[in-house]
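User: Some background: our group keeps a shared notebook of sequences we're curious about, and every so often someone picks one and asks for a predicted structure to add to the entry. Today it's my turn. The entry only has the sequence so far, pasted here. Could you supply the structure so I can complete it?
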Amino acid sequence: MKIFKIILVLLFFTNGSLICQNWEEIRGWSNIVNVQSFDVNENSIYLAQDEKIFKTDDFGLNWKQLKKESFSVAFGINHVFYNDNTLFIQSRWNSKGPYDKLVLTKDEGKSWDKGNSNFDYYLFFDFIKDKKDLYSVFKTKVGYKNPLNIYQYDFNNKNWFSLLDSATSTKIVNIPKTILKYSNKILIGTDVNKTAVSQGIKRPNIFIYNFNDKTLLSMLDSTSDLWRNQVNCFLKYNNSIFAGTSTGMYKSEDGGITWKKNIHGLQYNYIFAITSYPPPVFF
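Assistant: Of course. Here's the predicted structure to add to the notebook entry:
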């Protein structure tokens, strides 16, 4: 059994101090060291390496490769997501044949189907996860000026539906990178335009959508430099919301309207993902 390495950049801190010191290497049968994406479902791990898909049910002691002969993925797999007995796979480039970028299987790879069967799209962007909910960003028409829209997958009806109406979606210029759903609202964090940032042009990168009145608030916090950063992830803990960004951690006490930077104790400021484990320990 050969070994591949999974490098996880996780930031552990509590009361300003890093707390995790020991890591264990997960074993597998592939000699490919690049891991594009993985998802965890209870004791199972689904993992994508270039054009191959692996699964383990015992935390890496034994692995099996899922079959994918029924579709062709060019230049590798970018993201995997598992929920409700459904495994989604998104490739970085168009595939040959009828399966274009997004496919799914309900039988561990024995058969595959299109992951966007209820409509066609022009551009597909990354999966966005919030617990067991699956979101993505599609551009359904050709052309730079045509807006992006955020879609959620309905596992009961097996189709995608848009979260924003056409007028609201035009307010989001940069690519959404993360979503936090709470109460009757969703918090959306986006990428930033580096050229605009370098020129001092301030554009919102956090949006708050209210499902009740279908309004979208564009948040541009003038009290911090959050507008300069790509927002990669959110975490709601009690009455606080944390945002992991390209330059550190931010915290909001008013539902995402204002933010304060908090990087005390962090050795690495680029935050990919965060989660919590009681007592108040953050990963």
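Suggested note for the entry: The first helix runs from residue 166 to 169. Helices lie at 166-169, 194-198.
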